[in-house]
Amino acid sequence: MAQAKKAISKTSGKLSARNAARAAVKTYHNYIDGEWVESQSGEMFENINPADTRDIVGRFPLSTSDDVNAAVNAAHGAFDRWRNTPAPKRAEILFRLGEILIRDKEQFTADMTREMGKVLKEAGGDVQEAIDCTYYTAGEGRRLHGFTTPAEMRSKFAMCIRQPVGLCGLITPWNFPMAIPSWKLIPALICGNTVVLKPAEDTPLSTYNLVKACEEAGIPPGVVNLVTGYGESVGAAMTNHTALRLISFTGSTETGRIVASACAERNAICSLEMGGKNAIIVMDDADIDLAVEGAIWGAFGTSGQRCTASSRLVVHKKVYKQFVSKLVEEAKALRVGNGADPKTDVGPVINNDAVEKIMSYIRIGRNDDGAKLACGGKRLSRGDYANGYFIEPTVFTDAAPDMRISQEEIFGPVTTVIPANSLEDAIQIANGVRYGLSAAIYTQNVNRAFKAMNDMYTGIFYVNASTIGAEVHLPFGGTKATGNGHREAGTQVLDIFSEWKSIYVDFSGKLQRAQIDVESPQ
Ligand code: ADP
Description:
Layout: E1 7-9, E2 30-32, E3 35-37, E4 43-48, E5 56-61, H1 65-83, H2 87-103, H3 105-116, H4 120-138, E6 147-150, E7 156-164, E8 167-171, H5 179-190, E9 194-198, H6 204-217, E10 224-226, H7 231-239, E11 246-250, H8 253-265, E12 269-273, E13 279-282, H9 288-300, E14 312-316, H10 317-333, H11 352-369, E15 372-375, E16 379-380, E17 390-391, E18 394-397, H12 404-407, E19 414-420, H13 423-431, E20 435-436, E21 438-442, H14 446-455, E22 460-463, E23 479-480, H15 494-497, E24 498-506
Parallel strand pairs: 8-9, 8-11, 9-10, 11-12, 13-14, 13-21, 14-19, 18-19, 21-22
Antiparallel strand pairs: 1-4, 2-3, 4-5, 6-7, 7-24, 15-18, 16-17, 20-23
The chain binds adenosine-5'-diphosphate.
Adenosine-5'-diphosphate binds at residues 1, 171-173, 198, 200-201, 230-232, 235-236, 239, 251-252, 255, 258-259.
């Protein structure tokens, strides 16, 4: 998305008259070793409101590998002290962070809607998720459980503890600009790691707000370092930096692959959260109104820009007509607009690249795939929409499971309805994509619900609820091309940000050889 934001040179001389208003735009800094500093490049990029591109949200450092090096050095310098700070003390700081996030939730919510576009209610949910994650994970400061186990010899003690991984690089996307950074940052910190955090170039303000709150909470200098900039420069410098033992990445499957290969080259740990093509199965016994409500929320919430979005609706043929007619009616009634207006249901998409990608999929759906465009399909660009990235909520019907719009992640307000003959057929269709993040079934029949729960090969599954709505105390992640086997959130995230250390204590005072000096049972 680098091209979507405009780089400006701070040293290139006078701002033109046209840009006089821009002079008032707030300038932000990187956070390295407890100091707010400019990029060594002296360059900045603009953070633009996707609902109104005349509105420049702020200017952020267009950082380079030099800034990444400085941040890594700071993280290195802070590591020993932080890892040796007792975990309950680390947690106390994080609880303070939670309180600050609650205090400033309203401001952070407004900032997020302005830079990212999602409606205020959802932006509030994003900040709330960061709060929930912070409290839940800080509680781990008094757990971080390991285990003890019997040793195979007398006078020998065996136990297993978690140790921090070391210096962690966190690379995050724009669709959950505070929640996703918090999912990575807070677990990394509670485990005793120090971090370099790079937010998406489209939404650096929400992550800046999170880091500023970390500073106020009293996280020591060097423990959290923020470097803003583009993926190809800052992100790549991080993934290639030999001192970053772990890269935690959320974003597109294509970029995830680049990150994974860079990490493989240097044997770094790599945790990936990537795409989804999530299906809601609607059975003939379902509460259709509830299913339609769930489909609308799952498909068009956050303008469809969630990795868990309900981008496929697999509907039993017996209720297909009824479901589609209600769905289309509801989709047409959605109000598209600026997310800051409380009356808006669907905000803009993130930037012009996203508009082009989504519109090209709409063309593919109509022309190449030959699905039926039941509603939507147009970019809105007149009147109030003239300066933003607005697309109508779009429903394709009568789609086949193998069409491109049924298979590929569109990441916009577009959903595809596919008819199914039976539960088995629906499960096969729902499983028949390269991703495996989330899925759902609407049915009143417990046997069908359990069969789908058992047979859907996804990381998340819902019964009588949409494909979105994860809670922070359950593991989050997916199978197949969605991830690489890790899970964020829950206690399972600790397995990303800590490594196990098995410890044997021999108090016999003599040499005891495992597997050799073993007593017979008598
Ligand atoms: P999207 O296409 O949805 O913006 P990306 O996967 O491109 O998703 O971006 C997710 C995050 O990855 C962003 O912070 C972005 O800057 C970063 N990124 C993009 N390209 C690279 C790269 N080559 N190496 C490391 N990080 C990258």
